[in-house]
Write a structure and sequence with these properties.
single chain; alpha/beta; globular; four-stranded antiparallel sheet; 333 residues
Length: 333
């Protein structure tokens, strides 16, 4: 698990802002700005943060579903002879990118919105096979039934339509569709956010079982910190378009270094009433700045309880600490 599958360096995704009758560009929304991290083969990297911090934009950019403003995204895709082929996918021609699509897939947040209501379950799952393989109809049917079994659905569901299923079942159909082409890398964009609490654990456990069985690599995007701790090997914390801390899950949860990570984790309730009663919370003041007009220096400086003049003037470097985790803070050690 030490080998990187995806390497991201200085990734920026900016959306232009236009005004006036002539629609001139007057600025840009810096949804993702100078992001550098990697996703290791076989791991689950959790990506957490407040709503609007750029988590979903990052995931879509990695799959080239959004145009990248600048930066590098390298995929170390495993070939049949067990050698890794390094591909820079930013700026890649559409035909070449299409040939790489089977290796990278996405599980979307809303299982109802991402499934065509006019297609049967069998048609939905076999659509990627129609586009990227030359399997016969019988082979496709067999593959669909196997995928349904893999995600815990009955084979008799193949001829039904999405509206006939519950939210949890629809998400399982979405997972089966993502697995149809045997990808190496899957972006899970808040796959449990739209589900009942009782179903969320089932879906997360299913993802873990599939990862172990098929050797998958996940980027798991979520704002549910307790669920991320359950599934992720490493966790990256985002704030206003940038990662502020990244490290092994248990290390980050037990001893957060960045002030924002500390505040985020202090908001998670503890099941033990005795501990919860005596626990100190870190309360942040003010609102999250607009990504169209981010503050100078450290982007968290306007809300950070320990910010200094240096924080407001100088952007902290993305650096590695002695314990192996990475952080963007002037004073964390």
């Amino acid at each position: 698990m030490s080998q990187s599958l995806v390497e991201i360096e200085d990734l920026c995704v900016h959306f232009p802002v236009y005004k006036g009758l002539l629609r001139r560009q007057v600025g840009a929304v810096e949804a993702v700005d100078q992001l550098s991290f990697d996703v290791r083969r076989g791991e689950t990297l959790g990506l957490v943060g407040e709503s609007g911090c750029g988590k979903s934009t990052t995931g879509r950019a990695l799959l080239q579903l959004l145009d990248v403003t600048s930066g590098s995204i390298k995929m170390h895709l495993m070939e049949n002879d067990n050698t890794a082929d390094v591909v820079e996918i930013v700026g890649l021609e559409k035909n070449h990118m299409r040939s790489l699509r089977p290796q990278m897939q996405m599980i979307f947040q809303d299982p109802q919105a991402c499934l065509n209501p006019r297609m049967t379950v069998a048609s939905l799952i076999s659509e990627p096979l129609d586009e990227h393989t030359k399997l016969t109809s019988a082979e496709k049917r067999s593959k669909v039934l196997q995928l349904l079994d893999d995600v815990g659905l009955n084979a008799s569901f193949a001829n039904r339509y999405p509206h006939e299923f519950s939210g949890g079942q629809r998400q399982r159909i979405g997972i089966a569709r993502a697995l149809a082409l045997s990808p190496q890398f899957i972006v899970c964009d808040e796959p449990i956010a739209a589900l009942d609490v009782s179903i969320q654990a089932q879906v997360v456990n299913l993802l873990k079982e599939l990862q172990k069985k098929k050797g998958l690599t996940y980027l798991f995007i979520s704002h549910d910190l307790s669920m991320v701790r359950h599934i992720a090997n490493r966790v990256a914390v985002m704030y206003l378009g940038g990662i502020v801390e990244l490290g092994p899950a248990e290390q980050l949860y037990n001893d957060p270094k960045h002030p924002y990570t500390q505040a985020l984790l202090s908001a998670v309730p503890v099941a033990n009433p005795a501990i919860e009663k005596t626990r100190q919370r870190t309360l942040l003041t003010g609102d999250v700045p607009s990504p169209a007009n981010p503050p100078s220096g450290c982007r968290f400086s306007t809300r950070c309880p320990v910010a200094t003049d240096q924080c407001k003037a100088e952007r902290p470097a993305w650096r590695e600490l002695k314990d192996g985790r990475s952080i963007a803070c002037h004073f964390a050690d």
